[in-house]
Amino acid sequence: MQVSCVAAISVAAVFLALFTVAAEGKNNYHGIALSPYQKNPANATCRSVDELNTIVAKIADEGFKSIELEYLGYECQPSSISTVYAAAKKHNVVVQPTLFLNYALADNKTDYELQRKALLDAVAQHPEVTDVFLFGGEAINRRTDTEANLRVAFDSLVKDLAKAGFKGRSTINEPVDASLAVAMCDLDFLGISLDPWYEYDPPGPSNVTEWMVGRITNLRKLCPKTKIHVTRFGWTSNATEWGPIKPSLESMGQAFHGVNAAIGNGTFGSIPFTAWEYDDQLWKFATDFLAAAKVGTFVERYYGLFDKPGFSFDDQVAK
Description:
By secondary structure, the protein is of the alpha/beta class. The protein has helices at 5-17, 49-61, 79-90, 109-125, 138-141, 147-163, 178-183, 208-222, 249-264, 289-292, 313-316; strands at residues 31-34, 66-69, 94-99, 132-135, 169-172, 189-194, 227-234, 273-276. α1 (5-17) crosses α8 (208-222) and α2 (49-61) packs parallel to α3.
């Protein structure tokens, strides 16, 4: 029996309405993304071992169960990855390492090999701490490489991870394009990025949850048997206004709190959510295709949820 799009939308709306009571006083996000870099406005400066240890302890204390570790293989490695793994093990938090692939593999062989080695070394030392492996798919979304090329590299790396002791799940992250998602239905799970600012028709902070339900419902239709993991939900606090998005500390708190309550109320079922990200990264530039068209926005700098003047995660999100 086929279900019309209108009926599917109505079902989603009813499903959302059933869970309108807020889940108060608890952080319901499964994980949070962590950059190995300080939020230095001048350049990308590696965090110290002491800073990383303090941050991981803070993440655990806030109730997060996982850390999505960004940028494997860059100049901060291997010290940052080994420090995060050791601290995560101490605080009973799992690590979800991400290989960041922004351009074609053929043009990034050196960087890719550095990331690959850092990942395999870390997993070999701490296989029990590695929960999910994410093969960054921005190269696919930006069409700088093909899904076929990345899939070959991904399959090869997964085999090597298994040899290193990895027993967790793995995916090519961010398959937001419908055709790409279908090509990845056989993966352990679908990693999807839900970042409204990068949408051409974005939601505002008051209806971001309903928008997410629609996106997830559509993805489930494409791959009904594949689990979904929201590997990035972010809301910038400082950028050019974009449709109903008026970036501010208040709108960030409203969006994150609404999604946090919806997760706690079961709106998304058992789908785990990773919040983007721990702190602002002021060294970043507006290099993304949409951000670059909005001169001076530097949207990627202001996704931080902690160590942010005027913003309290406990008071504005997990309240």
